[in-house]
Design goal:
Immunoglobulin-like, 3-stranded antiparallel β-sheet, mainly beta, disordered N terminus, 1 helix
Length: about 200
Amino acid sequence: MKRYTPASFYALALWAVFQMTCISVSAQWVLAPTITRAVCEEQGGGGGSVTVDVSGMPGPYTYSWSSGGTGNEEKNLSGGTVTVDVRNAFGKDTSASFYVPQDSCNPGAALVFTPNGDGIHDVWNIGNSSLYPNMLVLVYNRWGQLVYQNKGRYEPWDGKSLLGLPVDDATYYYIIYKDAGNRGRGYSQGSVTIMR
């Protein structure tokens, strides 16, 4: 029968503690997100999502999202920050926050159009104009004279003045208000060039 001295017992105990420490230090949470952009407020917001793949710690995992979800994926999020708390079966937990970007739906005006009757770029188009049924579009020449105005549902400008005459080939300056009745709701401004 072999006897262990107190010194050899302590060495064995320290070796075991050292091994346990190495195992707990090497295990780390890894949360890998997949994020989908949210649509703009004018289209209802929402539509964004975050899916989290978890590794590095033994599972299974439970999830608790700041938006109320309990799975590894949270859907129909608006733009902004969402936080998830993840816990494994051993009571270890971590949390992470993710930013969900949101698309912009501001009116986007073309920089150039060519009202020459060839059927290609004959009118001035404004992207996302259908989202603003009460939009106000004002176009001025270089002397500050109003040459085009559209209030309400946007009808693309054909390069004619308020009197119905073709305007000169030149650069014009516009202001687009998202809401004619509430100009504080937002606007965009810039220039558009007519080339025939």
